[in-house]
Design goal:
CATH topology of the largest domain: Translation Initiation Factor IF3
Order of helices and strands: EEHEEHEHEHEEHHH
Strand order of the largest sheet: 2-1-4-3
Subunit structure: Monomer.
CATH architecture of the largest domain: 2-Layer Sandwich
GO molecular function: ribosome binding; translation initiation factor activity
Family: Belongs to the IF-3 family.
Structural class: alpha/beta
Radius of gyration: 37 Å
CATH class of the largest domain: Alpha Beta
Subcellular location: Cytoplasm
CATH superfamily of the largest domain: Translation initiation factor 3 (IF-3), C-terminal domain
Number of helices: 7
Helix content: 40-55%
Distance between the termini: 108 Å
Number of strands: 8
Function: IF-3 binds to the 30S ribosomal subunit and shifts the equilibrium between 70S ribosomes and their 50S and 30S subunits in favor of the free subunits, thus enhancing the availability of 30S subunits on which protein synthesis initiation begins.
Shape: flat
Strand content: 25-35%
Length: about 220
């Protein structure tokens, strides 16, 4: 008589039972008997609401796709004898790409006899990696690719983290703009007038107020 290792609906281990008994228990519990490990000896079956299981699995898969972020490989090209201004511009682009969660492929294009000096290319790429180290780390060391030398730098934060951080920074700036100073006293027009009065004027004002109250 075929037997299975039965798992209850809450993950509890029921034990090894005959397949007929497992099917009867599933029917009595208004649940489905689902084989979850067919290659085990004996096979493992679980009591569950299969319709609910499929629905929850679909929801999880949908959420996973929603939260999935695709990392883009951006490219930054150098000449071996690049001037300082152009180099800093390239570094700025790379910092922006890496900060947004994308990878950067740094490429040096050799000309003529420059191919005979690969150590110069390695030094330039290592300098580049050091200049972007605050947001990226080397994923692929410098290597020769035809007439070029390439290196890949990956972001320290993925795109989802980078996006959340950017949103938090934007929210903080907006809050700062909306913040109202409360550490300084606010004077009303009446307070300003009263402060400007001398003692005699205040006395006359009080007499006039009392007279008005008496007439009332």
């Amino acid at each position: 008589m075929p037997e299975v290792r039965l798992v209850g609906p809450n993950g509890e281990q029921v034990g090894i039972v005959r397949i007929e008994d497992a099917l009867r228990l599933a029917h009595e519990s208004d649940l489905d008997l689902v084989e979850v490990a067919p290659n085990a000896k004996p096979p493992v079956c679980k009591l569950m609401d299969f319709g609910k299981y499929k629905y929850e699995a679909a929801v999880k898969a949908r959420e996973a796709r929603k939260n999935q972020t695709n990392t883009v490989l951006k490219e930054v090209r150098f000449r071996l004898k690049i001037d300082t201004h152009d180099y800093q511009t390239k570094v700025g682009h790379a910092l922006r790409f890496l900060g947004a969660g994308d990878k950067v492929k740094a490429m040096i294009q050799f000309r003529g006899r420059e191919q005979q000096r690969p150590e110069m290319g390695i030094r330039l790429l290592e300098k580049f990696a050091a200049d972007v180290a605050e947001v990226g780390t080397i994923e692929s060391s410098p290597r020769i690719d035809g007439r070029n030398m390439v290196m890949v730098v990956g972001p320290l934060k993925n795109k989802a983290e980078a996006r959340r951080e950017q949103q938090q920074k934007s929210g903080g700036r907006n809050s700062a703009k909306r913040k109202i100073r409360t550490d300084e006293p606010v004077e009303t027009e009446g307070q300003n007038v009263a402060a400007a009065m001398d003692d005699e004027a205040r006395a006359k004002l009080e007499q006039a107020r009392q007279a008005a109250e008496g007439d009332a």
